[in-house]
Specification:
Structural class: mainly beta
Mean pLDDT: 85
Largest sheet: 8 strands, antiparallel, barrel
Shape: globular
Low-confidence stretches: none
Order of helices and strands: EEEEEEHEEEEEEE
Helix content: under 10%
Strand order of the largest sheet: 1-3-4-5-6-7-8-9
Distance between the termini: 45 Å
Number of helices: 1
Length: 177
C-alpha cells in the first residue's frame, strides 16, 4: 500500500540544518565556511535531485504506509572530493541521511514553509522552501546578459565576483565558476 504525500512537498527545499543520527555531527548550513547552498528538489513523480557542498545527487522517493512516511528507492550521488574538509564531512552527513527511510512534516514558519525530515536513529534535517538571503546584495549593482543565453553569459559587477553558480529552473546546478 502506498499513500499520497502532502502536495506541498513537491518543490525545491533549501537545507538549513542536518544531523544524520544521535551520534552524528550537527551542521548549521549558514555557519559552514566557505558558504554552500545545499538543496533538494522533489518532483510530483517522486524523483528528486539536489546539491551538497560540491556534489549533486538524484534518486526516487516512495511514500509507503502513512501519509508522512518516506523511503528512498534509489540514490545516485556524484563523488568528487570537495577539497575542503568541512565540505566533505558535511556531505557525508547529508548524503548518508538522505539515503535512509523516515518521516516528514511540513509547517508554516512565517516566511514560507519548513520541511523537517527525521529518521529512526534520531537524525533530522530542516529545509526551507526559500533560499537564505544576503543582506548586502543589491541586484541593481549587477548586470547579467544576454537573456536568453545561447552560448556565452556575461556578468558585470562593480566589485570582484568571487564565485558564480548557474542553476537551472528545476534546481540543478549546471556550472560552478
Amino acid at each position: 500500500v502506498f499513500s499520497q504525500p502532502d502536495p506541498d512537498i513537491f518543490q525545491t527545499w533549501y537545507l538549513t540544518f542536518i544531523l544524520s543520527s544521535d551520534g552524528g555531527t550537527p551542521y548549521t548550513v549558514s555557519e559552514i565556511n566557505p558558504q554552500i547552498s545545499p538543496n533538494l528538489t522533489i518532483s510530483e513523480n517522486y524523483s528528486f535531485n539536489g546539491q551538497g557542498a560540491c556534489n549533486t545527487f538524484l534518486g526516487t522517493f516512495a511514500f509507503p504506509g502513512t501519509d508522512y512516511d518516506f523511503e528512498i528507492v534509489n540514490f545516485e550521488p556524484t563523488t568528487l572530493n570537495c577539497e575542503i574538509s568541512i565540505h566533505n564531512s558535511f556531505e557525508s552527513e547529508y548524503f548518508g541521511f538522505i539515503q535512509g527511510p523516515g518521516w516528514y512534516e511540513i509547517e508554516q514558519d512565517g516566511t514560507g514553509l519548513e520541511l523537517t525530515l527525521t529518521n529512526p536513529i534520531f537524525g533530522w534535517a530542516t529545509f526551507k522552501n526559500y533560499p537564505l538571503s544576503s543582506t548586502d546584495f543589491k541586484s541593481e549593482n549587477i548586470k547579467i546578459y544576454p537573456n536568453p543565453v545561447k552560448s556565452e553569459l556575461f556578468i558585470e559587477h562593480m566589485s570582484e565576483i568571487q564565485n558564480v553558480k548557474i542553476i537551472s529552473s528545476n534546481g540543478v546546478i549546471i556550472k560552478v565558476l
